[in-house]
User: Fold these one by one.
Assistant:
Number 1:
Amino acid sequence: MRIAIIGAGFGGMAAAYDLKKAGHEITIYESADYVGGLASGFKEPHWDWFVEKFYHHWFQSDKDMLGLIKELGWDGKVLFPRPFTVLLHNGKWYPFDSILRALLFPGLGFGLDKIRFGFVGLYLRLTNNWRALEKYTADEWMRKYAGNHVYEKMWKPLLVGKFGPYFDQVNMAWMWARLKARTTRLGTFEGGFQNFADLFADRLRKMGVEIRLGVRVESIKREQGKLSVRSEGDSKSFDKVLVTTSPNLMAKLSPDLPGNYLKGLLELKSMGAVVMVLSLKHQLSKEGYYWFSLPKEAGFPMLALVEHTNFVAKEHFGGDRIVYAGDYLEVGHEYFSMTDEQLLERFIPAFKKFNSAFERDWVNKVWVFKTSYAQPVALVNHSKNIPAIQTPIDGLYFASMSQVYPWDRGTNFAVEIGRRAARLMLDKA
Ligand SMILES: Cc1cc2nc3c(=O)[nH]c(=O)nc-3n(C[C@H](O)[C@H](O)[C@H](O)COP(=O)(O)OP(=O)(O)OC[C@H]3O[C@@H](n4cnc5c(N)ncnc54)[C@H](O)[C@@H]3O)c2cc1C
């Protein structure tokens, strides 16, 4: 079969790998001039490693990603340091990345609340019945079982930070999955995620996959028994096509999809993200903390402050300290239209709260990355609203972050859904 894949993110590349191994002719179309999609990175001339545009790490439970890397023979290049994640309480930061640390966290008091927190955590770690949980919002379920205090202190800030106006509509299965699949050790790839994406793309090319970079697909139509893929004045026909973009874009690329399927795509909700990457002259967190979770009500102008070089060594970046300041936001949010300089001015006073010695002249350089599609929002009974990978148009398939469920989206699940789509395309599912 002649197969086209739209998107050279980890989902598209994983699908291409399996489809090529099964003996098919594969073309990947990628609008950017690099592979890796949302997990791609960039490099300054004096850096040996790439920095991801949006902060990225793996969990030890990411079996699809780690399994693929092993299959490709690069498991020796995966690193799993143990960086510190911290949470704010009464102006002080507390490590908060294991059950023990959570139980010691003073923000929950040491009475009944802590017991409820412990039992709810244990129940969620042990149960596999997420279908029962998706009927409730995390807001109502957590208030009922963990109690208002624990919810307000622990879980609400997480929901507000990630989902903004949708915070009280997200279902409890999302929260379950998040607690179930996370580990304290966090992983990365030697050279950064981009290095892995580039190595993977090279392997695919060697296998005979054609990767067309810088080619934006404009439409996909069924014509004369084939699927015709149009891109910038060019049109090619394929037996099957897999699209790995956002649901909105899928609806635009293939307007001939039946009304019900299109409606399903357009009704899916998601959040965008704005992330600033800073190269600094000095270490920001003297304690060596990696991830600061910042509750919105504490007044920080960002949701997460992540000191990348407290996770991987600064020597990979010529001694520069790399820090991310980011937030999940609705697309109309002012951060999307601010210049890099304006955003930096907004963030600068907050950096002093992490290190009182911080000065403006610590900043070597900043980069700001924005995406309108960063985090799907899983509403109540989301499993019933997930668009099928096999669309109603014969030969046309769709695999996106919005169909990853109940797990929270991530490169691991991009690989999982990409490979699942490939099995469906090969009629092996
Ligand atoms: C802020 C943030 C933090 C994250 N943190 C983590 C993390 O810590 N760990 C983790 O594992 N994951 C993380 N993720 C999620 C992870 O990046 C994604 O789940 C994963 O990269 C999705 O891969 P994908 O292949 O499904 O889609 P994408 O990576 O979005 O790939 C789709 C590709 O399609 C291309 N494309 C779009 N339109 C067209 C067109 N018309 N023609 C041709 N090509 C087109 C795009 O350029 C893109 O390359 C994070 C994401 C964000 C935004």
Number 2:
Amino acid sequence: MTTVHERTPKLQTKLPAVGTTIFTVMSTLAAEKGAVNLGQGFPDFECDPKLVNAVTDAMTQGLNQYPPMTGVPVLREAIADKVATLYGHRYDANTEITITAGATQAIITAILAVVHPGDEVIVLEPCYDSYVPNIELAGGVVVRVPLTPGTFRPDFDKISTAITPRTRAIIVNSPHNPSATVWTEADMLTLQEILAPTDVLLISDEVYEHMVFDAAEGRHHQSAARFPGLAARAFIVSSFGKTYHVTGWKIGYVAAPAALTTEFRKVHQFNVFTVNTPVQYGLAAYMADAQPYLDLPAFYQRKRDLFREGLGKTRFKLLPSEGSYFQCVDISAVSDLDEAGFCKWLTTEIGVAAIPLSAFYGNGFDQRVVRFCFAKKDETLNTALQRLARL
Ligand SMILES: Cc1ncc(COP(=O)(O)O)c(C=O)c1O
């Protein structure tokens, strides 16, 4: 009889820098300490029951088998109509829109589709945590360009300087997680001008597109779709999870010119193949009414204002929150701890969890700023504010 050796072969990790994320650390600590979790970005309230009914109807009707690889036509058409109405650019529903398993899968798929080993990809730090590992998995070289410290505005001189003949893509995220800034029309026009003479592609992460505040002051979401020179080179990524309060459904889409979509789908076909059928039909039916996403800015602006008013009574210095569902604060007047230490202290001693901005930088840059998420019931925000009032 041969001896069986239960030995798991040793691996060389592909992502040596990746460990347990701060989001998991803070959420675990928050649960352990019974803290109000304003760390991780997800709503603690329910979505519209009409949406659940629409998905349930699709399941009941037997729409439960594999959909087309690119997504069900009615949903792709609903997205094409919506983008055309809101941003003035009509994507072809057949050749230019693909339904994805959330924005996360959309972004990694776009990167795997276009980034060859050694290609450079520019990320603007602080940035969402999936971008860098995605580029590394594709064998790309991450080029980090900081947003301006303090204001988090794009520094176009630095962006221009970072572009080389090896630059394959730049990832832009507006409204921005974590800083809650929103790119202006002038910003997008400048980006368009900088990219015009290059072959650099744009991955435009627009998951918070419907959370832009202060429209009365002229602030609107500046989708890359509005700018022909950008749309022609862009993968535009959006997420139904954010728009409809269903982050756990993991469904989104990518809109991109046909030539880019063709390459995108070659990877999509083999990393996810298709996305949840009844949810796609349910969303398509629900999207017939534009009101839910048109009402979203006012819905979140009210929560932002409630939260800011309460925070205004503390010694935190409030940064602007122009869009997304985040509010950043400067902690300098409240504590001498570094950002991560402060967030742990705040969770343990005050009972409110937040996320350090250093988590969004490759080098852990610490500027004494932490992020709260206000996508929470008013009662949750009020409980958090009562606790934070001690600061
Ligand atoms: C900037 C940004 N991009 C992408 C995502 C991922 O979206 P999804 O849940 O649809 O994968 C998030 C979620 O937090 C995000 O904040």
